[in-house]
Amino acid sequence: MTPPRKISEVGFKPPVMTDLRRRLDLGLLYYTHHRPHQALGGATPAEIYFARIPAHLAAVPAPRGRPGQGRPNSAPSTPIAPLQEIQALSNELDNLTGKTADH
């Protein structure tokens, strides 16, 4: 049986602080700006904080029918209630943190 090798012999170098910071920043960016949260009704924390309409509610549905016919006029398929709930939660959060609507 061969003796275990030292870390210095293998060539392992621990990540430097800048690499760790970059990875942490990327993770937080994804978490706050791209990952939808169930507790926020499918919105991201950034959409709530900046009082934006969540992307999944603002998305335009794909056109139906044959090419060149355009989209038929119909009622929006997205319910309005979740957006109102999200805005109410956002306003409540602003009141708790002392922020104004002007951010």
Word description of this protein:
By secondary structure, the chain is mostly helical. It has a domain at 39-57 and 80-98. It is built from five helices and no strands. The mean pLDDT is 75.
Which SSEs are present, and which pair or pack?
Elements: H1 7-10, H2 17-33, H3 45-49, H4 55-58, H5 81-97
Keywords:
single chain; 103 residues; 5 helices
Major sheet characteristics: none
Helix share bin? 40-55%
Euclidean distance between termini CA atoms: 65 Å
Indicate the proportion of strand residues: under 5%
Structural class: mainly alpha
Order of helices and strands: HHHHH
Number of strands: 0
Rg is 24 Å
* Mean pLDDT metric: 75
**Low-pLDDT ranges:** none
- Report the principal-axis shape: elongated
Total number of helices: 5
Overview in brief:
The chain is an all-alpha fold. Helices cover 46% and strands 0% of the residues.
